[in-house]
Amino acid sequence: MTISETMEYIQSYQKSGKPVQDLTRIQSLLDELGNPQEQLQVVHIAGTNGKGSVTALCAAAATAAGYRTGTLTSPFIRHYTDRIQIDGTDIPPESLCRFCEQVKACAVSGDCSQFEITLAIALLWFLEERCDLVILETGIGGLLDATNVVKMPLVTAITSISFDHMALLGNTLLEIAVQKAGIVKPGCPVVLSPDNTDEVKAYV
What we know:
single chain, alpha/beta, UDP-N-acetylmuramoyl-L-alanine:D-glutamate ligase
């Protein structure tokens, strides 16, 4: 695939795809790809406000400390490839094309969303490049977000939670917090922004 063919393929997908009730769709895709997420050390970040900044700060700190650090952010800032980076450098076009072909060849890829396709490409690249650490920013919510396929992150972080994507996440702050806090795993440390409401803090 050329870069134009690759981008045409990626952009042919809806950003969110059909509504999901669980993580079966992304898990099936990653199963076909050898489950790269299980071979990576991940910091997982959710929230409404500030999650992009926290992702960038964590990645910059890890890179400065000498760790080869992959990041997946949502959405992109300038162009599609800047959402997938290692040590601040975008995924090269040739790598994007190669991994996109691999994802496209999977039987279940046709049912996926653009975000799920992007996540799969990113994880494959991070694994090939032997990243020491991967910082994953959720797309929407947390509980049913494709990034939540990671079973045991090193640490999870939840930034300030407020009203966003209410059609998908709920009409109250607590309902939204339940979705965001879905990235929390038993035995995994959680960092919670102190500017959350008492109701959110009590729940998380």
